[in-house]
């Protein structure tokens, strides 16, 4: 059995770079903070509905119609978490720069 030329010429799959387990995780946005609360209340009211689509669609629609005043607690919480994340990332990046500098010293 002969293989077609197109099948032979497939490029090799690249493996994903390994993620650093010490890198801080990105914080959730205000919308995801809202959805976490919304899912709980939605499941209590609609315990028979197991559709992820319906929960997401309903939550998204509700988020769109919320006023800025009602979104404010979620936005404030998200901003607080984001500022903590930024400080952790700055510390992480400084550590990475120091690590790279040490390896460059060793290689010289």
Automatic annotation (TrEMBL):
It is found in: Nucleus. Keywords: DNA-binding, Nucleus. SMART domains: HMG. GO terms for cellular component: nucleus. The keyword Kinase does not apply. Residues 1-28 are annotated as: Disordered. One of its GO terms (molecular function) is DNA binding. Residues 24-93 bind DNA. Gene3D superfamilies: High mobility group box domain. Its main location: nucleus. Residues 1-10 have a biased composition (Basic and acidic residues). It holds the Pfam family HMG_box. It comes from the Eukaryota. Residues 24-93 form the HMG box domain. This is High mobility group protein.
């Amino acid at each position: 059995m002969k293989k077609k030329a197109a099948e032979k010429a497939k490029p090799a799959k690249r493996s994903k770079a390994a993620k650093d387990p010490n890198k801080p995780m990105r914080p959730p946005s205000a919308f995801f903070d809202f959805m976490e609360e919304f899912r709980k209340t939605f499941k209590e009211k609609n315990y028979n509905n197991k559709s992820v689509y319906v929960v997401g669609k309903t939550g998204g629609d509700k988020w769109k119609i919320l006023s800025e005043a009602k979104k404010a607690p979620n936005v404030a919480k998200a901003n607080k978490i984001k500022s903590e994340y930024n400080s952790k990332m700055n510390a992480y990046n400084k550590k990475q720069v120091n690590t790279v500098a040490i390896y460059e010293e060793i290689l010289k």
